[in-house]
Amino acid sequence: MRLKPLPFVVCLLQAALLLAVSLRASPAEACSQPPVPRTYYTLAESIPGDGASNVPLDGVLLFTSRGWALEGIFEDAHTGVHDVLTVTVTDLDTGELVPGQLRSWWGTPSGEVWQPNAPLLPNRSYSFVAALQQSDPRPGQAQGPTELHGTFSTGEQLSPPLEFLGELDVELESFEQDKYHCDPGMCSCDNKVGREVATRARIRVPGVQGGSPIGSYDFDIWVTDNTPYRFDVPAQEQRREHKVMDSWRAQSAGEPVETLFVFHGGYDFSYKPCFAWRAVDPAGRTLEGAPICPKETVHPRGFAFGCSVTPGTEGTAFLVLLGALLTVWRVRRRPMA
Q: Is 248 exposed, middle or buried (0-12, 13-18, 19+ CB in 10 A)?
């Protein structure tokens, strides 16, 4: 039998169309971030507050703030309070400025942390000035100052070391959740198509004490396949070893806390998960706990395409095209009745 050219061409065009759809721009390329309203900031409080005493020699200052949207003023990239805040700390005995650095803290309460480059002197008095440098006019609804002034005095001790009051506990369990269909290239996945069985981990972080006495502790949890994540190795280098690298956070005021981690549905293979974890205080001190690798295996919920950047899209498209060509070949070889 001779292969008729028209069906063959139509099939190739359909396969090419499927290939084009599969290789269309990823969500990161198709969904650009719209302009965001510019924010005007005011300061709320400092921790420790004005007049605090017996501050640890390696203590930090935490500054909290409030944000107020500026109507009709937009910017392409969000400007955070970290970008406009300056903090000056002065030794009141000598009048010299104390070198330090600012960094963001996402615990409770969240804010900007000033940390000295070297331990402060014992039994010494210091002053601080926190100021927001903003060129936009102050909106009418804004409340609070744009500068905070205060003093504090140190004690004679450094902060106590971080200490865990137990171990990490992890239990894997199956549960049912809504299932959504994500169209390729769309910025959101809101098309509910039914229910599906997924896997989650019930994580219990232990109590913790020591470190900086302000705010909460932040637990940094990494979930990887087969072997634990290593905090002393850059994440980019570990991507050669791990196909799965998901992170999770939990916060605690020092007491044990339970949190739920839902395993990502975009992996098309089974693996044994490992949990690496550490506690972080507002001063940036860290304490790592012993990693846990449960015996259970996490199985895929299906190949998630469209809403997350999932490896293997090009290979899938190639298989679609190959399948179409094989169908044509089988039709060509089918004997006539």
A: middle
